[in-house]
Amino acid sequence: MKNLIQKPRGKTPSLIGSSNGRPKRVIVKRKSKCCRCHKDICPGQDCFGIPKTGAGFSSLKRFCKECFENIITQTRKDLEDIKNI
Fold it and tell me: How many structural domains is the chain composed of?
């Protein structure tokens, strides 16, 4: 079975206006997948972890670099919208 990379669905999340904790860089110890695009993240690679809402900040949603860059871009857009109020 061929491993297909899915296109991220839905609106890109933002770090503004949520009760998520602070994102952090995580070095992957075992193979995992990006929560947004489901691309494989191999051991030894770094990714970005954002604590899951309502999980007591003990577990992280992992994002690949590309998806995290999109999240940062969306957060910047949200900040610009706030500045214009």
Answer: 1
